[in-house]
Amino acid sequence: MNTLELREQIQEYVEQLSPEKLLVAVDFLAYLATREDDATQELLEIVGFKENFDHARENVTQGKVIAVDQLKRKY
User: Fold this and answer.
1) Cα separation of 58 and 49, whole Å?
2) Are 43 and 49 in contact (CB under 8 A)?
3) How far is 9 from 54, CA to CA, in rounded Å?
4) Long-range pairs for 7-13: beta carbons < 8 A, 24 or more residues apart
5) Which of 2, 12, 17, 67 is the most buried (most CB within 10 A)?
6) In degrees to the nearest 10, what's the CA dihedral of 10, 55, 75, 15?
7) Taking the model in full, what pTM does it have?
């Protein structure tokens, strides 16, 4: 996936987020922007992170997710 496709994919996800999740996303993006190199490297050094992340992204694409409010009610 090239940079343009990645940005488009991010925009699609952003459009689906609730206001609460947007706050989390903006905090995470701010963190990445300020520590981009360190944070990226740190994540990529976690054994299996990329594979797990790709799997999670596929689950989201297929709608195989549980809403946070459902988890909160359950636990």
Assistant:
1) 14
2) yes
3) 13
4) 13/60
5) 17
6) 20
7) 0.45
Query: DSSP 3-state assignment of 74?
Result: helix
Q: Residue 12 and residue 57: Cα distance in Å, rounded?
A: 13
- The pLDDT confidence band at residue 67, using thresholds 50, 70 and 90, is confident
Residue with token string 């963190």: 31
Distance CA 58, CA 72 (A): 23
The DSSP string of 1-35 is: --HHHHHHHHHHHHHH--HHHHHHHHHHHHHHHHS
The Cα–Cα gap between 48 and 2 comes to 22
Amino acid at 25: A
Nearest CA to 67 out of 27, 31, 18 is that of 18
Residue type, 64: K
